[in-house]
Specification:
Blueprint lengths: L1 H26 L4 E8 L4 E2 L5 E7 L6 E10 L6 E9 L4 E9 L10 E3 L2 E12 L5 E9 L6 E2 L1 E10 L6
Antiparallel strand pairs: 1-11, 2-10, 3-9, 4-8, 4-11, 5-6, 5-9, 7-8
């Protein structure tokens, strides 16, 4: 009996390693359709520099969430940002203007910070149903008065299945 217990105890690190590997594999599984991020050269986002993301919707009966992702430095001089989002489905284009608040009234950034850089994941469309299956494109452009808009380091989009599909 003591030999069996010792044998099991010696195998425990192997079981632990296998468990961690399987957990890591499943933790990486998400319902993201696309998760894009584009670095802005020299942290100078110009009007002409549209950030475009193309993705494929395979089941238009499901609801999706679309998030705008932004990273800026602490030297960004505004408490908000305006963007234009051009939604394209191959046949038509719809443009919508968004304003996002990035700082409190006292100047404290609302995003999560890492050193001098602050990150945001901001909702654009929630529980949205695309009209059909197929290719879609969302193009983002900055819509502030400054051109270029300084201290923007990264811009991106995430499109993922809504949690309301899991019920």
């Amino acid at each position: 009996m003591a030999q069996k217990i010792n044998l099991l105890l010696n195998k425990r690190p192997v079981f632990l390693l296998v468990f961690l590997l399987i957990t890591t594999l499943f933790a990486g599984c998400t319902d993201s359709v696309v998760d894009s991020n584009v670095e802005i050269a020299d942290r100078r986002w110009t009007y002409r520099n549209h950030i475009s993301t193309t993705f494929d919707i395979k089941d238009h009966t499901k609801a999706y969430n679309v998030y705008f992702k932004l990273r800026h430095t602490a030297n960004y001089k505004y408490a908000n940002i305006f963007i234009l989002a051009h939604f394209k489905d191959g046949k038509r284009m719809v443009t919508k203007r968004y304003q996002y608040k990035l700082a409190k009234n006292d100047g404290e950034w609302l995003g999560s910070g890492s050193g001098n850089v602050f990150s945001y994941t901001l909702p654009m469309l929630t529980n949205y149903h695309f009209t059909h299956n197929g290719k879609f494109e969302i193009e983002i452009e900055q819509n502030m008065r400054d051109n270029p808009l300084l201290e923007i380091s990264d811009v991106g989009l995430t499109v993922s299945e809504s949690l309301s599909n899991k019920n």
